[in-house]
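Thread: "does anyone have the structure for this chain?"

Original post by V.I.:
We have the sequence but no experimental structure in hand. Need at least a predicted one for the grant figures.
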Amino acid sequence: MDEAYSFLANTVSDSVIVACSGGPDSMALLSLVVKLKKENDIKVIVAHINHNVRSESESEKDFVYNYCVSNDLIFEYMKIENYDGYNFENEARDRRYSFFDELVNKYSCKYVLTAHHGDDLMETILMRIVRGSSLKGYSGFSRISNREGYSIIRPLIHMTKDEILEYDKLNGIDYVIDKTNFLDVHTRNRYRKYILPDLKKEDINVHDKFYKFSNMLSEYDSFIDRYVDSLSDVFVDGVLNISKLLKLDKIIIFRIINRMFEYYYGDMLFCINDKHVQLVYDLVTSSKPNAFIYLPLGFKGVRSYDKFELVKFSDVHSYDFEFNEFINLPNGKNIELVKNTSVNDNNVIRLNSADVLLPLHVRTRLNGDRMVIKNMIGSRKIKDIFIDCKVPMHDRDLWPIVLDSASNIVWLPGLKKSKFDKKIGEDCDIILKYY
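Reply from O.Q.:
Generated one for you, tokens below.
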């Protein structure tokens, strides 16, 4: 913790905003800032956000507020009243950073401190490796990152969670516990509980190795970015020049495609992964002079001879495809025939061709569609399944439904499996994956 404090003292020399949930990490960070305030007389604004998903949120607000009163800190509070439903974690993140932007302008601050630590960095890198990302994405996050007009600083990035907890214990620092941090339903929690402990058994200082790895990737990414900046005639006003693009090395092509996605998607870039980048690459390197692919959030990637660009489509309200081995869907998702997988959730279905009439089809919903759900008696309306699964209204029209040629609905990808689904180990010769 001495290193973190020294870093803070040498970096922060003005008003500072501290993101504080009241948990052990942010309270440890806040204690350092209080110490810095006493020595340097800086203004400290504590930003507390109520994500409005737990009953304990109000008491946590009171806990942080009382700490601020006791230590002469400015308390700023935001409660997220409702969500749009596109992606909880990313939407919550967007709201947090919008709140920070407002406070920066209100108090003319140059710095926002967050309590991200070494374990957080490891989790982020591992999750992105598994999910797929760009070179920049694989690097996780840095100790200092710049936003418009201010810097996000993460002083605890060299520390582990255990070190922070030990610091809190030795210094008598009170904090609150978010019980959802222990639920396996959240992806990050599973990495935290089951993967990181094994990595630390191999090397107790493995977080330092991840930090070096992160910095190395960031440096490579910055170098590639500078080179791409010099290629001013390849991607102009949202349009790729394919003939010029294909003269470049593959790694540069992929970086330019990623930059194209950044141009079109902005804050919604989390919807894009390496599969989408590969789809664009396959299209621009194909022999087809005119073709298109579907991408998330109502975009189509359109190739017209030597040009490629993204356009918003509003005319696609329904579709009906015959399935072979792979389909890129209008909702930006894919269904692929795979040889094997250990996954057994609703994103995968196993079928025996003897039970269904081939070929399979993928289409949008029709009035009266019903499905016999696995392990249930009778059938249910697709409409009711959408309601039960809380699928947003704007997603339902393009949601894929997989059925056989006898019009039996065999799968509602990502939501429900039918009676035709086989358990792992049972006879099946068709395995489909939705992603």
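V.I.: this helps a lot. The domain at 2-182 is CATH 3.40.50.620 (Rossmann fold).
O.Q.: and Residues 110 and 150 are 4 Å apart (CA to CA).
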